Amino acid sequence: xxxxxxxxxDVRRVCSWxxxxxxxxxxxxxxxxxxxxxxxxxxxVTNIEGNQYTAEQLxxxxxxxxxxxxx
Length: 71
Hints:
2 helices; two-stranded antiparallel ribbon; alpha+beta
């Protein structure tokens, strides 16, 4: 498993690209949850806030994205 790390300004910038917010909570770092799908050209296809989807729905989205012709 990989985590985003680096200087705080860089972490803030990357999180802002995806709408992720984070904050300190005592000794922990808490953050919002986003799932993104990026196509083969590096274009953001979708950014889903939270986790209110099934594995099948996410799989269908990824499969559809993988089978779209290159632009």
